[in-house]
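quick one, 311 residues, struct below
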Amino acid sequence: MLLQKVDRVEITILVDNVTDMLIQGSPHATRAPFFKGTEMLPPLRAEHGFSALIDVYLKNISHRMLFDTGACGDVVLFNVDRLGVDLSNVELIVLSHGHFDHSGGLMSILKRIGKPQMPVVLHPDAFLKRWVVLPTGQKIRFRSLEEDRVLEAGAKVVKIAEPYPLLGNLVLATGEIPRRTQFEQGFPAHYAEIDGKPQPDPLIRDDQALVMNVKGKGLVIISGCAHAGIINTVLYAREVTRVNEVYALMGGFHLSFPNEFIIDPTVEELKKIRPTFIVPCHDTGWKATNVILNAMPENFIPSAVGTTFIF
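---
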């Protein structure tokens, strides 16, 4: 699928696991101000979740969309207000998958935007009831995304499993990502209710990413959790777009517990991919983030809530 090239992409982190008032900016990362005039502003809020506002630019045209909504509506809306973000011109919302830490703020966001038939793009499995089983055998249920409530909130649910063009083919939602690497094996302790029966759900097939193609630079790829594996995600983005160069790779890489054992092979493959910029977020975990920093110091940019990344 030939993805239309864009002039620039700006990605503002609305929800992430890290907040840092003193983090330093760079040419490609504008940090949120922590004061106004002579007054200190309230700190931005972090939580175990992810949400990103994405603006794409082509000539004199810009489009705005939202990727994931964090875990809690009060957190994402606090950060939206603190940053002065205008949600009225959001054209659509994409969910990377149905887990609570990416969909939990959806109802609050839909209410705030207030547009009838706001497109919410997701995989059909995003509505499954899910849980994890601990080594002790204890079952921990996730808060589920309920389709009826989403529709009642005025959304237009768009279910996809294949690559799906967005915003006039300026952005691509990957849909379901094929699993190819030997070491990215999903989430073995994960289960779902499928066809009314509890079943193993280690692959979390609703996991998807977004892809943009910046003129003269290459792909910008953003994942939510990368349950499919961040390497699998990049491989598929390259295949679908027929573009090999990766300009920026960011989002959750799912290398924290219980996936720390695949940090080393993942980082070895990341070094082969050689993205110009790499921005680990959310569930990448502190161990993996430090390994990536040490392996790719010239490419690494740290994430924090409120940062606008410019690619």
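The domain at 5-310 is CATH 3.60.15.10 (Metallo-beta-lactamase; Chain A).
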